[in-house]
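Attaching the record inline, Q. Sequence:
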Amino acid sequence: MNIVLRYRGREVSDDDVRFIRDLITLHPEKSRRALSKELCLAWDWRQENGVLKDMVCRGLMLALHRAGEIELPPARKRPNNPLATRRRPPPVLMDRTPLHVCLRDLRPLEFCSVRRTADEGIVDALLEEHHYLGYTQPVGEHMKYLVLARGRPVACFAWSSAPRHLGPRDRFLGWSREARRRNIRFLAYNTRFLILPWVEVPHLASHLLGRMARRLSRDWEALYSHPIHYLESFVDPERFRGTCYRAANWHFLGKTTGRGKDDHTNRPNRTRKEVLGLPLTRRFREILGATA
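Structure, as predicted:
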């Protein structure tokens, strides 16, 4: 069996290509979107929550089309790409009075999961205005949190699906290629962590990271029907020391190559980030290394 294409962890063989060609021939009236749903149903290709992976399937079929392996029908629609044309979240009005207290005087702290709520835009706006990387719309599974102190925002988090290939983490976990393909969904990547600039509370950052680690898996499972067993993040050593992560028991695993995921030159083109990780269960290697 010859492998024609590898796409998002799935191997497409000659037999698969022939099946797709036959599917297109049997349904000449269907659009690309409808064909991708038919293929998902035929392959029973679903997310963990049972939803069809038709968007990923459309990407796979388009890759085969561009490679000359299949002939898709002409595109009927060219919808706007919200990631390419997105508007920046506007600033939000809130109390920005400097907050200089000790941690015990800031409590109680409330963690609000804002994914798919009216408050999600508040997190987007705060990250856009105050995080040095700004706000970027996550792709795939993701969660966002707003942290309140007596109703007043003091911090926010954004989490997303983990990068598929990450050398220091893969070596630390010791998992095989097949195990990574099957279990990458059990990792979450801390894309953004922001304490608002007018909030200066000693030990707040590590405290929030600890609280976050104790609840994220439960919230993720409620939304996406599977838990999280391992957390990871990057720290830019030219800007930060990662002290709060280390104080919250995250482990330094090594550094990135500095080439990024779309590199074609094999040469560093950005800062080499420190890779930090945190297991959420003692059996993380056993769970993440499983292939059945």
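The two ends are 22 Å apart (CA to CA). The chain has two domains: 3-66, 99-288.

More tomorrow.
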